[in-house]
Design a protein that fits this description.
The structure holds 2 protein chains of 2 kinds.
Chain A (H helix, E strand, L loop, with lengths): L1 H12 L3 H13 L4 H20 L5 H25 L10 E6 L7 H12 L3 E4 L6 H11 L3 E6 L4 H14 L7 E6 L4 H7 L3 E2 L3 H12 L4
Parallel strand pairs in A: 1-2, 1-3, 3-4, 4-5
Chain B lengths: L7 E5 L4 E5 L5 H7 L18 E6 L7 H6 L2 H5 L2 E3 L9 E4 L11 E2 L14 E7 L10 H10 L9 E2 L1 H5 L1 H7 L3 E7 L2 E7 L4 E8 L3 E8 L5 E8 L9 H10 L1 H24 L7 E9 L1 H8 L19 E4 L12 E4 L9 H10 L8 E5 L4 E7 L2 E7 L20 E8 L2 E6 L7 E2 L1 H13 L16 E4 L2 E7 L9 E4 H25 L8 E5 L1 H5 L2 H6 L11 E5 L1 H11 L1 H13 L1 E2 L6 H9 L8 H5 L11
Parallel strand pairs in B: 1-5, 8-10, 11-14, 14-16, 17-26, 19-28, 20-22, 26-27
Antiparallel strand pairs in B: 1-2, 3-4, 3-5, 6-13, 7-9, 9-10, 11-12, 12-13, 15-16, 17-18, 18-19, 20-21, 23-24, 24-25
Helix pairs in contact in B: 7-8, 10-15, 10-16, 12-17, 15-16
The chains are: A alpha/beta, B alpha/beta.
Chain lengths: 217, 626
Amino acid sequence: MGNKADELVNAIAEMDEGKAIDLANQMLAEGIDPLEVLRLCRVAMNIVGERFEKQEYFLPELMMAGDMLEQIGAIVKPLLMDQAGGEEPETLGTIVLGTVHGDLHDIGKNIVTFMLELNGFKVIDLGIDVPIEKFIDAIEENQPQVVALSGFLTLAFDSMKETVEAIAEAGWRDKVKIMIGGGQIDEQVTNYTGADAFGKNAMEAVSLCNEWIGGAT
Amino acid sequence: MKENMVPIQIKVQNCDKIIECYPGENFNEAAQRKGLAIATTCGREGTCKSCAVRIVSGKVPAVTPDEKKLFDDMQLSRGWRRSCKFVPITDCTVHIPRRSLLVQSRHLIVIKKSDQLPPDPLVRSKLIKLEPSEIEGDADWERLLQALNRDETGPPIERIDLWLLRGLSRSLRKLNWDIKVYMRGDEVIGIGPYNSRAYGVAIDLGTTNIVGFLVNLETGEVLSANSTGNPQVSFGGDIMTRLARAARDRDVRKLMQKTVVDEINNIMQELCANEVQADDIVAEMVIAGNTVMHHLLIGLDIEQLGKAPFVPTICQALDIKARDIGLISTPYATVHFPGIIAGFVGSDHTMALLTSLSSLRKELSVIVDIGTNTEISIVDGDRIISISCPSGPALEGGEISFGMSATEGAIEAVQIDGNEITLKTIQNGAPIGLCGSGVLDMVAELYRNGAINHRGRLNITNPKVRSRDDRLEFIIIEELDGIEGQISFSQEDIRAVQLAKAAIRAGIDMLLKEIGRKETALERIIVAGAFGNFLNIKNAIAVGLLPPIPLDRFEQVGNAAGKGARLALVSKKQRLRAHTLAKTTSYLELSGQKAFMTAFIDRINFDYRKQNQIDGLKQSNGMETV
């Protein structure tokens, strides 16, 4: 099995889609724990992430890897539900996430959603151009530990600020951690919006959630 | 507060200037205060190095981790720093490379005979000779009005411009009642001696450049033209940065408006210097620009333009008295702002359509106006759909490590053969940076030579590729060989070009999809814009910026917006056409669309399979383009 595990990690990291899906199917058919297959996907995705950081890979590779993992996830999910006796598998924590109002960018946000899910978090993705009330409603309904606000436009920083203020007004500021991400975001922007932290990429978003929720690294 | 502090003196070696810096102030801001504009492509966020300077003597600040990402050890030890993050603590001497200086260079624009436009102007004139006034006679205006409406074939005159009226009596007497009267619609807008002439000025107000033309309104002849940088760039290189700064601070917004008005006044002065006599009048102006430039100049609200759904205050064409926006050198002139198509498709594109479609022969055409925001229209019979692509400034040399505007010393063409790099610079100056066409050539040549793979990754085994702090770059000129230090092309630069070309190409894909046609069906691709004029089409196809169709279907038309503005200036008919074009062109919003995102991701890589096919593309006469 060791060999196949390495091969799966390699196939994903090297963008060999057909081989990756085949291998995942084979391993599951051989009775390997679906959780183990997901763990291998995470290992592979970390390699892709590192290569992205080093600029070896670019957006298309992230999207392709995401696509492969989504396919494998779709195969694994029913097996996991069987394992859990038909119930939703347990998650590390809940994150409400969306692109703030006035901004329509979603590539980066989708990658963050995907990476968080891959790392065992439940993500409520509210989409793009999300009105403040929609954030508040989703927070009240899902009681998340973390709220993630995405925005690319410079003026989206103002929308983030308004959203953070509204969360405070609704009495949730002490109960959730808020992270922001998107365009040219730094410490100064974070202070301006009133968020707790910012992430430069999806990997940093995962680290932040792990830190806050105390999940496994 | 500041007055009490002792300023620090910074000597600028190559400009023979002393800049006084207040304690805590960064050098970039201090220089701007003293009228020495250094580039601030990222709006002083510190994310680029467009504003890099070399601290030659005095205390050089310690190297920050950010700086390490932007400069290599050799550059850092020679004193290279970003001027926007350089806060001097003691007196020192700096060298500002020319690529970092926002030179207000004026370009001469050659006017061809074919540029003469058939006039059909809005302003008309009439020679009038009045009898001197008498006791118990009518008032000056009533007598003039009567004379004007006598056997007048045009619309009856009813009004006179208020500012003109204030000096009317004096003018009539000074000119001995022998005058030429200029009229527009039902209004008198100018009075001059009988031998005076009326001129018009057309302005293409771009985010980066402003181009002006002086036109004889009676003959349609273009008399002079000039071009200068838009001084607003010191508030940020791209419109989104400027928009955000203006939206947050009313005073900044007013200052930005004034900066542009002052520059237009300067341009007009230069345009008129040799052609226009003191008694002649500038009667009409047309100013075309993107929606943000348009709103800022007129003084409209812009906050709503910076956020989805990106709504303009007004799309309809506007006629405003020049003085109302601060153009006081021609107070009575009417400034016409042509109609806008959408928040990110401005009147400059309406003007580009006006120019390009005048010769259109009902073919399936695409008009691409490449800039920081690239506007693209597809024309299919009577149907026109336009989009705006967030292509970024890379293709104009912006936000590229060693990018610069197209002035002397800018590398405008690149050829690489193995280890041999051949550079062509503007005016054959010593190379100091890359302008847009050079940037595109660079990427195409890197790819052709295998220095980058089909994903755009630099090949570390290439002898010219170097790694610094895990970042790769391709060395074009070594630090010690260049007259202003190193010139290199970084992995980030390549990524910026990939994003730009993918955005534009995906935009074209979306338009074709919208009308249900294939790219091979395109009969004409019109490439407009200053950059578009110099771009090597074959290289644009090689990197995947433009679709691989035969080269003779491409047309590089240069400043189509400027030409359109001239058409609208001299011709009522053309102005009406522009009006119809702006109203009938539909707009397709790309951001937030899944299909656009997919197309965009698809177009980021280089298509290696098509390389042979592209190399085989020839002009129909068998000649290859250079």
